[in-house]
């Protein structure tokens, strides 16, 4: 029994506690073999729980390999992982916002249940690794107690909504996008119109176009803040981009509308979700993103369908209620503004000041970037950072898409002391936002799809570049390096100046880890353009390739103003390949066996440890999900019977039948309300009177159970009938499954 369930009773929102309790029931059903593993897999993903790769309990933090102790002592790297083995838990942090209390709790949980690491992702999330599934409910409850959820952090749903970490303090923004990203997050979380996607749906906000903080060009839906004069008044709104995405084949977003008024942001997003749910690909996962739907329909037709859907949406007060509170998110400084103080007796203070500090538009304040190598923050560092933040900025903490943390509203006079305190806990690393600040996905450390060690390579590159940071040309220092363990671009290699993604090559019977070199992507302008692949280089020679590429740029650029993108575009793919061509030759195993192992892993390189990835989850229809919900409710009714809670057993079994009937009805009538009267009537007309629900042998027997239950008066002695009700409900749901199968096969 989860002790935190009782400890947090009355503290957690009732709806959240119900969801977690339901997940506990689903886990129990999985243990008993009473739930389809495929459906449980998507259910698990929608709670933020992701299967991971096992690497003999090893985790590479870029500097050393740390051993992770597993209770069983038997988990190994490989594809055949089981559903209840330790995995990853992703925490949703909308627009990257974190409070002091949340940081403390997240740090405690990382230490108690995971490997002691809070991993910051490129979607402003926090991930835990090596968490046992039986520990997920107490972790979820403790997160929920401080206002954090894992709901829909994975799976075929709307993922974490990202936004510029400088929103509200940026010198160039049109306005603060924070309240809009918060409102859209809350509105779409669990929204019924966003539960039937073929794959995930990603949203990002940016306050300006020139910078890269929001990356609106590479999202399913990107919202760029703009203002426009309407009837003589300055009006807030958004330039909407749709259909962007990276992955194996990147797609730049298309413009949906040059100006969408702020009050239309939420309803248009809802309408877009409905169109994607109805017309998006469901069978072929490789084509199940918005970008492919737009490619199929064309942007004009897609827009027409969305606008038509918008017209028929029933009004929802939530569309605009948040605007009544004003545009300010509510974040305030806890210290008075002051002029910057640059003097410090710390030797690396000036270096840190030159790379990790951004002057806010609010005079006297700065944003401080805490650079996290490989996006990792230890639980000890997390707790100490929370105390430091509480002292200097309060809750003004945000995660970034570059896997760092920023403290906002730092009074300039506090910068020297803040540096000292950060330095004590190892969080005063300079070179944030420079070529040293390498971004990386988890790669082969924990991801089943990882081909080459992205974290191992990123750690090595960071180490080498940091050693010569002060000597680097300014033009080189301003470049971005991003590393993905495979072609899926979780490390965002397509929008890096210099990007790499893992692959392998066969050399005389041996597999050798390689990285494809991608050059000339544009990080600025919200991920304005994508780079080009020029060739695969053995993993161990990638650091040398960075040296050759950057040296050629400095020597051969036309002038000091020529950008790296401009240089690559001017000299061309063939020439850039010639620079690294000599590195592509691999010595034989006998000559140098080091090429045949990956960074941070002394074992001979192999692809045999790859597994089936869960980036998008299984494609499970809305109807299957709802039928599974009905099954879970019957299961809970059975448990209530065992505990002699007959009233609860009665209520749950009846509700289960209604949910199963509603699942069938929604095949034809998507908007059927959750009303017993309407559900029963719709079921009778569409499925019972037409005999579509009838079993070959039982005929209408099982369908009558619902109709009779609806017409029956409340029983005087519930104990006498509760067991019958539960059994009838189970039979009705089985019949609903059969009916759905016949419909799916086109038989009825």
How does this model look, in words?
By secondary structure, this protein is α+β, with helices and mostly antiparallel strands. It has five domains: 142 residues, Alpha-Beta Plaits, CATH 3.30.70; 157 residues, 2-Layer Sandwich (Sulfite Reductase Hemoprotein, domain 1); 76 residues, Alpha-Beta Plaits; 158 residues, Sulfite Reductase Hemoprotein, domain 1 (2-Layer Sandwich); 123 residues, Four Helix Bundle (Hemerythrin (Met), subunit A) (Up-down Bundle). It contains 24 helices and 22 strands. A five-stranded antiparallel beta sheet has the order 1-4-7-6-15. The protein has a five-stranded antiparallel beta sheet with strand order 5-16-17-14-13. Helix 22 runs antiparallel to helix 23.
The major sheet is characterized as: 5 strands, antiparallel
Mean pLDDT: 89
- Within the CATH hierarchy, at the fold level, what is the topology of the largest domain? Sulfite Reductase Hemoprotein, domain 1
For the largest sheet, list the strands in their spatial order. 1-4-7-6-15
Q: How many helices does DSSP assign?
A: 24
Q: Quick one: how many beta strands?
A: 22
**Would you identify the CATH H-level superfamily of the largest domain?**
Sulfite Reductase Hemoprotein, domain 1
Strand content: 15-25%
CATH architecture of the largest domain: 2-Layer Sandwich
| Proportion of residues in helical segments | 25-40%
Q: Spans with pLDDT under 50 lasting ≥5 residues? A: none
Which word captures the global form? globular
The CATH class of the largest domain, by name, is Alpha Beta
- What is the CA–CA distance across the termini? 45 Å
